[in-house]
Amino acid sequence: MDLNRNEEDLYLEDKGMDFEDSEQWKDNNEVEEEEREEVGAMDLASDEDEPVEPADKVSESGKEGYFTYKLENYSKITQNKIASPWRDVGGYKWRFLIFPRGNQTKTHLSLYLECGGPVQNLRDPWAAHIFSQSAKFSLQCIHQEDPSKSIVKNAEHRFTDNESDWGFKEFIKLDVLLRPENSFLHEDCVTFGAQVTLVADAALETNFFSYDSRKETGYVGLKNQGATCYMNSLLQTLFHLGEFRRAVYRMPITISSESAHPEGLTYALQRIFYDLQYSPTVVKTKKLTESFGWDNTDAFTQHDVQELNRILCDALEEKMKKEANQQNTIQMLFEGKLLNYIKCIHVPYESTRVESFYDLSLNVRGCADIYESFEKYTEVEIMEGDNKYRAEGYEELQEAKKGVKFLSLPPVLQLHLKRFEYDFARDMMVKVNDKFKFYETVDLNRFVDRTAAQEQNIDVENDDYVYVLHSVLVHVGDVHGGHYYAFIRPKPLSDPSVWFKFDDETVLRADKTQAVDDNFGVGGDEDESPERKIGNEGFGPLPPPKLKQSMVRRFVNAYMLQYVRVDKVDQVLSPLSDDDVPIHLREQFEREKEEEAIRKKERMEAHLYCTVAVATEANVLAHKDLDLIGLEGMDTFKLRKTSTLKDLKMLLCSKKLVKDISFVRLWKCSKSHRNTLRPQCLLANGRDDQMITDTNESVYNGVYMRVPYTGRDSLLDNTRLFVFVEDLLVMDGRSVRAKVLNEKIPTGVHSVALNNDEVFLFFKYYTPFPAPTLSVVGKQLMKLRDTIGDALAVAKEFVGIDEDESVFIFEEKLGRKIPRLNDMSRNLVSCELKHGDIIVIQKVPPAASDERVIALQRAGGRYLPTFLDYVEFLWHRVEVEVRNAKEPLGPAITVELSSNDSYESFRRRIANRIDPSLDPEYIRFYPPQLYSPGPRMYPLTPEERKHNLNGILHLDSTRYPLPRVLYYERTRYPSSDYDHKEEVLVTYYEKIEGDRNHESKPQWNNGGEHQELVEEEEDKERGIKSETTHFAHLKHFSILISREGTFQDLLNLVRKYLALEESIPLRLLEVKEHLIIRIISPDTALRFPTYPHDRLEVRVERIPSEELEGDTRDTVLVPVHHICKENRYVRLPELFGIPFVMRVASCGEPVGQLLHRVGEYLKAKEEEIKSWKLYEIRDGLFSSLDDMEKVWVPEPLSDDRGEFSVSLGLEHKDENAKRWQSPFPKSFMDKPLKIRG
């Protein structure tokens, strides 16, 4: 048995019906145990006259009952099916349907439960015939000796007058039933039991087949576009706020100049609400998301429903504010006010700020219910210790009380439950599934400070903040994804027990259990559903708890609550009448429905029509590529497939595409794999009375037709006709040939008829200057007996070439093999030329040494001397996107290249496109990264540069489609130098001496301000990036150096590069990003990173004068790094800023003194230094140095390599710290939620 099939499939199979799914349903009903059998039985009409007896046991609520039936004389039964007497459970009639010898099976007994509808009464006699009731039930075959060994099977079903029975075709095997030792058959009797629980539709886990939400509930659902369940739930909630819906209807609509229909967010939301109010079927939300500016990526990205609520309401409020006469309903419904205050304890100072809110985020963790969350929201925080408050007018930090007071609460209170929070221990977001109670009615009067409200001139004297629950938005799943649906109570006061579950397309009836109790979360002693409690009242053998349901309940809980103030219910939830929908909106909506009906009809009749794409002489002359006609620029018409050739000619004449239909030939064109066209044969065989779809495409007038391309695109275009219009009044088809061959010009040069010995040919001319150009020069009907020489003479006449001039002549074919036609005496029929074939001629090309060729190549052009070279280039032509590697998302240039181009060839062409004056030797290329946009970390290697362009583009052969993009970098040195030298990234660092202002400019030489400006310009030209902080000057640049050199060689190059005197003392530090790794001895040989994308980073530091003038014998150099304070929770700190080294006494220094020296080095103010903190960093771990009096002793360098084993970390906030940000877009899963429309 296939456990993936749902109950509807099993039911129809049991009925002997074949059913093929036409829609992908959500599978919420997996089989819970391996004994689950097929469900369904034959419908039996209920007997109205048969008495109804009460069930054996009934719960206090009356919604659950248990009854049994003893089937006697089993061995003597001859009937195929037996119905037990009716029993009353929950006001409905129930009975067993038993098939003693099986229903469509010979090996099992079949057992079903049938519902006969409500127990008939005189008041509503019709109710027995039309009913709908959902139930969960278990059917049992009772063991006569030990009831615990009874066979029990569980099911659930929505019983209706059309589907009144449900059960199991293979309930128990007959051989098991008939064995006496099994004790199921005792004294020729079998006893069956049934436990039935009546539930709301929403409690069922099964899908509904042919369910009509509008008919069953009066409401309809919203179509899920992929992951828009959160949006659907929110829209249903807002729709049921009558005042909100009424306000949306009142908003004005705008019609753009480009469209005759209204557009924008307002109109799309009005349409959604109108359809929810009147549509009989599911409402689509595509137009609404398009008005948001969303694409398919947004539709398949699940976002937070509270975030969408805020963004949507903000967008609507902005639109309402722009309208002079529009009431701000958003503010009226959702705005509350609170007071943030900080009050000093020991001094008379208080700071207050009034804020508005449209929703509240309440804590779930640590709170038992909604009241505890409000208490936590308003609890007072004591600011003391390190958290003291700086009060205005007082120098010392003050102890203070900080808190929030509610000044007023809105008519519609939207509560967001903080189910998602960051877990610092696991360094990840987690979902809080803790139990959190909320109530159908809440009294929040005690949380509103009316005294504070009066002080702020807010009148709340007559407001009663008692709220009734209107809707519950539920989230199923975890932090990585899930599903949203909503429970809504439309009439919380007049009909408080009626809830509805809005789950995307489906709307179901629900009750308080499903809407409230089941969505508290998990945890606590009371974590047991009411249904499970009822089952313990001793009704009989109960089925075990469903594994799926118990597991899912751990992740199902309320996420947003919407309460309505009791005294505002009538206003906020007032129902809408037809008159509340403006007339202009109704007319517009109905007009769009009519248009949609017309489009639907057209789609249904599409198979009766074909699309005719028409090309004229102008299209042919404008085409400069292979073949004759491109698909763009063609006129298209829609015609019935039964239209005749004359009908099409008349249409073209009415569209002014032809002048006289008597002088027009229409050719059916074949489509090539290049998406280009050639005439193939006369459309409809040239007969005016023949249908345009009837064309003999194999042989016409003795000339074999071209076999059309039958690729995938052609199969998709089987309802399209491509037609070439040959207008004989523009260019007749015979006169040029007659003139060239000195024949008498026939009187029928404009005749539409085609002779049996004629073939329709086109002529093209190719020239390589000033750029390779291929153009159509004419067309002519040639005789099959004509020779190649005759065709050449016609071509020369079209081009205007002298008869004696030497030319090349080719036949243009669809493939790469282009034949050259050298035999002038060969006739056309022997060359197998067909209608629509092309003859190409060109003059003899100049040699490569010709001045024109040299000039063309110097300008970056490509010399293609013959038509054969041109075709070969077209076959290998690729358009490559070229981007700057330093600005990978910046503007790109598109360069047309050949996949056969060598590295040197395409480098020269790309350099010319970037800058005609750019030497190609000073540019190098990076292929794209493997899995993300942007350049690879290292450029093309010498081995990779041996490939042609095709090989370089195929370096990453795992990606499809292959990226046709290259990233370039303009280099300071010839690119060939990088093959045998290494690039070192150098930062020259010079500490600012004295108390200079951090805004002062660096003075590298004694030349004054003018000299500084001149040097800055020179630095830019030499690729030097200068940077000045408040404590140091820096210059960043790169140097090429031989791999066999030493660091002393590097120092010499730096001195020469920056024009530093030999007397200036320097030291070398290896620095990686924000971390100083080691001090480098100049005599050390250069060592470069192993990985090709890594580069050696070195800091050349000028030794400060105070260090040179002082005694450094008993000191140790110690690196000081900047630590990001907000990330101190993780094991490794985030480093930022510019690290530095300072000398510390070998015997150690007090921590407070060290902190003061660091502050002096950074030229910080005394108050700022007091907020800093020092850490010792050792082996990647850092420990706090809190005791300011403790002496911290440094450690000498760890080994001969000069690596620092211990360093200091300075935890502080640096406004100038430059945090790295990726230049590439985030994954679409991290796409921010925005309404861009």
Automatic annotation (TrEMBL):
Q: Which UniProt keywords apply?
A: Hydrolase, Protease, Thiol protease, Ubl conjugation pathway
Q: Does the keyword Hydrolase apply?
A: yes
Q: Entry's InterPro entries?
A: MATH/TRAF_dom, Papain-like_cys_pep_sf, Peptidase_C19, Peptidase_C19_UCH, TRAF-like, USP, USP7_ICP0-binding_dom, USP_C
* The family this protein is said to belong to: Belongs to the peptidase C19 family.
Q: Which GO terms describe its cellular component?
A: cytosol; nucleus
In the record, what lineage is assigned to the organism producing the protein?
Eukaryota, Rhodophyta, Bangiophyceae, Galdieriales, Galdieriaceae
**Any idea where the MATH domain is?**
64-196
Reactions accelerated catalytically: Thiol-dependent hydrolysis of ester, thioester, amide, peptide and isopeptide bonds formed by the C-terminal Gly of ubiquitin (a 76-residue protein attached to proteins as an intracellular targeting signal)
Name used for this protein in its record: ubiquitinyl hydrolase 1
EC number(s) from the headed UniProt entry? 3.4.19.12
Checking PROSITE patterns in the record gives:
MATH, USP_1, USP_2, USP_3
The family database entries (CDD domains) matched by this protein are listed as: MATH, peptidase_C19C
